[in-house]
Amino acid sequence: MLDTKWETFERSSQRDEMTFVGGLGYTLIALGPAIALFFTVIIGKPFLILTLIVSIFSWLISLVLIAGVWRAFLPSESNVWVYIPLLLSAVCCQEAARRAFWHLYLKVEDILNKIAVRLSKPRLHTVDKLEIALAFGFGHGLAHVIFFCLALLTPSFGPGTFYVPGCTQMSFFLMAALTGLSFLIIHTFSMVIAFDGHADGNKSQQIFAPGMHFLATFATLVNLAEGGCVYGVSATLSCAVITSAVCWKIQWDKAGADPFTSSNLNRTHH
C-alpha cells in the first residue's frame, strides 16, 4: 500500500518537474536572447536603461490607443476580417512611434554631445549611436514579448500541453515562443536599420524596417488557416533572420569605414 502511494507520488513529482522544465524552455526560447542582450549591453549603462524604459512605455501607449479604438470590434471566429485593419492600424501606430523616436534621438544626441564638449569628453561615437538605437528597438521587442507571449506561456508550467485544433504539428506554447522571439529580433534590429537609414538618408533602409514589420505581422494571419502555423511561424522566423542579417551587414560595413571604439555613454551622460 505504501509502495503504491510512493510510486504515485514519485510519478506525480516527475510530471511536475517535466512540465516546469517545459515551461522554462518555452520562456527561454522567447526571452533568452533578450536576457543576454540586457546583461551584456544595457545593464552597465544607466542612459541605455532609461532609453529602454521610455521605449517600453511608448509601446504600451500605442497598444492602449489601438485597444481603445478597436474595443468595439473585438475579433471573433465570425468576423476574422477585423484582424486585417486591426493589425494594419497597430503596425502604423508603432511605425509612427519609430519615426518619433528618431526625432527624439536627434535631440538627445545633440544634448549629449554638448555635455561631452562642456566636460571635455569624447562626442558620441558610432558604437554609442548603435547602442541607443538598439535600446530603443529592444524596448519595443521586449514589451511585445512580455505582453503577447509570456501571458500565453504561463499555462505551460502546468500539467500537459495544448494544441490548437487547426494546427497539430506543434504545441501552442512553442508557436507562441517562436513568434515572440521573431518579433523581439525584428523590433530590435529594424530600429537600428531605420535609425541608420535616417542618418544616411538611405531610403531603402527607411522602407525596409516598416516593410519587414508589416510582412512579419501579416504572416501571423497564416496561423489562422488549417495547418498554417508551420508556415506562419516559419515566415516570421525568416523575417527575423533577414532583419538581423541586414542589420549585421550594415554595421559591418560601417565598422570597416569607422572602426568601433569603446562606448562613451557611461561617461558622457554624467
Automatic annotation (TrEMBL):
- Residue spans crossing the bilayer: 20-40, 47-74, 132-153, 173-195
- Report the source organism: Riccia fluitans
* Alphabetized UniProt keyword annotations: Membrane, Notch signaling pathway, Transmembrane, Transmembrane helix
Where does this chain mainly localize? Answer: membrane
What's the protein name? Answer: Gamma-secretase subunit APH1-like
Specify the signal sequence span. Answer: none
Mind telling me which GO cellular component terms the entry cites? membrane
Annotated PANTHER family: GAMMA-SECRETASE SUBUNIT APH-1
Task: Please name the Pfam families in this protein's record.
Answer: Aph-1
